[in-house]
Amino acid sequence: MKTIADAAGVGRPRYSAAVRVSTLFVAIAVFCLAFADIAITTLDPWSEMQRMLLGVVTPDFFAVEAIGTAVVQTISFALVGVALAAFFGIILAQFFHIGPVRWACAIARSIHELFWALIFLQMFGLSPLTGVLAIAIPYAGICAKVYAETLDETPAAALNALPAGVSTISAFFFVRLPDAWAHIKNYTLYRFECGLRSSAVLGFVGLPTLGYYLQTAFSEGNYSEAAAQLIMFYVIIASLRLWMKPKLVGLYLLVAPFLLGGASQIRWDNVVRFVTEDIVPAPLRNADLLDPQAWSAFGDWLMMMLGDQALPGIVATVVLTQIALVATAFLTLAFFPLISTKFFGRFGRGVGHLFLVVMRSTPEFILVYIFLQLWGPSMLPAIVALALHNGAIIGHLLGRYSDEIRLRPDSASGFNLYAFEVVPRMYGQFLAYLFYRWEIIMRETAILGVLGIATLGFYIDSALADIRLDRVMLLLLVTALLNLGIDSLSRRIRAGLRLSTRIDSCRD
Amino acid sequence: MLLQLVNQDFGYDRGLVLRDISISIHAGDRIALVGESGAGKSTLLTAIQARLLEQAALVPQNPGLVGTLSVFHNIYMGRLNRHSTWYNLLNLAWPQRREIDAIRPLVERIGLGEKLFERAGELSGGQQQRVGVCRAIHQGGDLVLGDEPVSAVDSHQARTVLDVLHEHFETVVLAMHDVDLALSYATRIVGLQNGGIALDSPSAGLTAADLDFLYKRGDEDHR
Amino acid sequence: MMTRILRRLTTLLAAALVAAPVVAADTFVFTAIPDQDEARLMERFSKVATYLSDQLGIEVKYVPVKSYAAAVTAFRNDQVQLAWFGGLSGVRARLLVDGSEAIAQGVEDPNFQTYFIAHSSTGLKESKDFPKEIAGMTFTFGSKGSTSGRLMPEYHIREQFGKKPDEVFSKVGFSGNHSKTVALVQSGAYQVGATNFKVWKRELAEGKIDPSKLSIIWKTPGYPDYQWTIRGDVDARFGAGFKDKVQAALLDMKDPDLLASFPRKGFIAATNSDFQPILDTARELKLVD
Lengths: 508, 223, 289
Known about the structure:
The structure holds three protein chains of three kinds.
Chain A: H1 17-33, H2 45-57, H3 67-94, H4 99-110, H5 113-124, H6 128-152, H7 156-160, H8 168-202, H9 210-219, H10 223-238, H11 240-243, H12 246-255, H13 268-278, H14 292-335, H15 346-361, H16 364-375, H17 379-403, H18 414-447, H19 456-465, H20 469-496
Chain B: E1 3-12, E2 15-25, E3 30-35, H1 41-52, E4 56-59, H2 71-76, H3 85-93, H4 97-109, H5 125-139, E5 143-147, H6 155-168, E6 171-175, H7 179-185, E7 188-193, E8 196-202
Parallel strand pairs in B: 3-6, 3-7, 4-5, 5-6
Antiparallel strand pairs in B: 1-2, 7-8
Chain C: H1 2-19, E1 28-32, H2 38-56, E2 60-62, H3 68-76, E3 82-85, H4 87-96, E4 101-106, E5 114-119, E6 138-141, H5 147-161, H6 165-168, E7 171-174, H7 178-187, E8 192-196, H8 197-205, E9 214-219, E10 227-230, H9 234-238, H10 242-251, H11 256-260, E11 267-269, H12 276-284
Parallel strand pairs in C: 1-2, 1-3, 6-7, 6-8
Antiparallel strand pairs in C: 3-10, 4-10, 4-11, 5-8, 5-9
Helix pairs in contact in C: 3-4, 4-12
């Protein structure tokens, strides 16, 4: 094959920065693949898959008495959690220009809600507060950021038009909030949808939401029951805009706290003990802080933790994240035409929509869990599940975006149209979405350790199994820092490529 | 004869723009469509396009380039339908010497030689318009339909562009707002006014003044 | 169909509304480590709750948990006052809660065993000596916090090979519970696994194990395992002598139906010192500080 690198004169083919960055990421993923364990370890995955598919076509809505309660509680946790997050989010947004507030929000959202739940389980046990805070805290961090960015976009003209001496609070309620209201409302509704997913997943650690029964049904092979629960979940999400009416929100919020269920009252001595003893590194606990011996023991402890647990955990997390990110990219490119008027007719798009809705409504944690049952423990289930879920989310956004592209009347069709017209025009947008999801994929990758994949979550889960909360906190800190690092790297790459800086609906 | 329209009406959803149009286009015609802004030049071109899509190369007013792809790729796109998809993809990733050799002289002729591998989105409006013309020429065929193909190009470059277009196509139908250019390149002038054809005659013997009546209402056009 | 579902949902909603804040302060709550299929746990311990309620004359409630650690944490945080623990989880719980005591264990528990099991494709057969051929194969434990599924098998593996499990095997997993370990080795997801001998026997009797695919390759020496552990402060909360009443009720459990679901032949008294060997082993493996 000849390229024209040797051609005379000016003008050699060059690749744009976006293409070079993409190639680099693909190369990194291929490199990571060499270190990843992607074996299918079950001997007969197909028979299990057949049984699952059979379950999907024969859903059993009456298998679990508690399914109705589980649905109600899933919604209630999401409602209360997101309402608190929105409330504190809007307050924090006012102070978002203050460094420490911004950092606290960044840390809150860099830790997965399931990890938050595991922390609060130690303090509050299976009380409703655990589930509510696990959603409210990371979501408040996200809401604060998005609200702050939205409010910042209030046109300066509107603010300048105010008479001198108007108080900040008046200006907020008369100008900034009304101006941003529609956007904030939409975003909060989207967060609520995410909240439903988070709430369902919290069942995996014992809260009384859908995930609780889903895990039982799956682990015992009752696929008809599992299918019924998942279908209920899709119906709730698909009908969201039908029942989530502005007028009814107040009523819902009034009722929801009483539907959270759960047992056991909160004992504050447990909370105090957690903060003052449990999370203090073991060598320093009950030790004389002036004793150099204690500090040297702490040093050994720290080296052991970082070397034996954090480091291998980080490596596995990064390896899995990079592969899943690139797999997401490829699936996105395959998925978006499914719902694009440029490529499919009404019927084809209908099928495409259904597929994408199911894939993006299913929490990635549950998808991974399903694939783990099918293929056995390795990185493969995680890669496939993360790519399907995230590919469906970005594919959906790109599909809608592609409809807005106006083409020449004589433009190509089929694959040529795809490769020469549509994808190049959307490539910047596509990369922007992907780089936004990068951090989210990493957060999700870390939590998957709980399911047995050797990412950071695996070591966190092991420390939890040993009730060594000091180790849990250290590893969580490492996880948070890794996430913040990826977030800032992603921001730098986006700035370098001059990709658009505000995309809300693909943030999780 | 390539096309014959008899007593046809054309327009968009909002209402008719052209009424009772009769026109025929023969192989070898070099037609300039002239008239005020809004007289219906673009509508008539669109109608002709719709009927000759298979044979005609197009130069739309907005060249519709893919800004993220290079000038080379945008021109190459004129021939997407002539190659296999795999060959197209190969060229997307690695431009082939054969294709570059075919496209480079054209681009040099039109004064964009050093821009061959620049991203189209980074060019000026006039440069983009010239790339659109190159794409049509690369697509080839006997007929080109152009909607103000030199509207954003300076007058010197405009002549080059029109020269090249007329060299490459046997039949040329261009909507033009520059009456002098129209007279010097076209062999036949079709003048539009008030949604109808007000003039259809050989250009020989016509002067710019003869076309003035087409612009008598609100003379904002820069002739 | 739709109306049926709707009606059901409405009823459930109403029920949830009324029943939301449960567990009165004087309810005696217990839990159990989720060591096998959850449906079975629920069935087993709901019956036990009824039995204890009758015997103790107060409301007794069983709270299911999703992990061994959650059982220990609930016990530690006084959200449950009694728990059916494994050897390791019991040791951990008693280290964390001053004054808590092991009060009863199954007749079989002082001499518990772990079975190493292997898929037939490995060609391994049962042997008296530790099967060193398993080095390099894939291996699954049960739960990370299990005595029979983690602590004891890991102890023997380290003892035999002088290395950590992940250095001995090509891949090490944690299935989550004993039933799952059996299922994963039977499906071939792992070549070798370690499971609780009680669960093995039960699943064999129930026909869940296909002997042509799965066989025992080694049995560990006996060790103490499961026990009922109670918090030290129950007498203060539920009245003097409450701990003894609970112990008596457990030792008195004679209903074969209740016992079969554990499955144990009966319960005998236990003390904290019975589990010293487990604590020593856990310390040796650095699973407990």
